Amino acid sequence: VFAGQDKEATQQAREYFEGYAPSSPSFALIKDGKTTEMIERHQIEGHDVMDVINQLQALFDKYCEER
Question: Which family does the UniProt entry place this protein in (predicted)?
Fold first, then answer.
């Protein structure tokens, strides 16, 4: 969801992010309708692309099963 583009969708998405302040850019891992963890702006901006990819991969490894 791009916050500046669709305010209704943004508001609906933010309902899943309880406990997290609005942050753009950000990535949220949602499992069973709940946010398990979130990678926020300070964990993305100023970091190498591979660092962000590794953070995302770590979340998938922690919470997701391979099918």
Answer: Belongs to the bacilliredoxin family.
